[in-house]
Design goal:
By secondary structure, this protein is mainly α. It is 69% helix and 11% strand. The protein has six helices and three strands, in the order H-H-E-H-H-E-E-H-H.
Length: 122
């Protein structure tokens, strides 16, 4: 085995952890939504269909911890908190957009494959 192969194998747990975050359904949707600019928590919750308050909170905390999102709290009454992508978070928009385009281009093929599979299983 080459040294570079061993390096990649040694990084697998770390790579898996990153992919777990950036490949998570809610993380992808939050990053894509913040791609349009900073948003308040309530705006994110209204925009991202189906996400619970708790899941949005957990997702934002994870994205902030990973350096993809910044949280800015303003000392107003009531308190106002805004979220926006960091430079690292904005760099994630490119692969997310490409994945979205791939999904749109291949959704009919995938639906047809599912129908064939389901018909065969029954």
């Amino acid at each position: 085995m080459s040294a570079s192969h061993n390096d990649v194998r040694g990084q697998c747990p770390a790579v898996r952890e990153v992919l777990k975050r950036v490949g998570d359904k809610w993380s992808v949707l939050v990053v894509a939504t913040l791609g349009a600019g900073r948003k308040r928590f309530s705006e994110l919750r209204r925009t991202i269909e189906g996400i619970s308050q708790r899941m949005l909170t957990l997702t934002l905390k994870g994205l902030e911890r990973d350096g993809l999102v910044t949280r800015t709290a303003y000392a107003t009454i009531p308190p106002r908190v805004e979220y926006e992508l960091t430079k690292l978070g904005r760099s994630l928009l490119v692969p997310i957009s490409q994945l979205g385009e791939w999904a749109a281009q291949n959704r009919e093929n995938i639906q047809a494959a599912r129908k064939r599979y389901d018909a065969h299983i029954r």
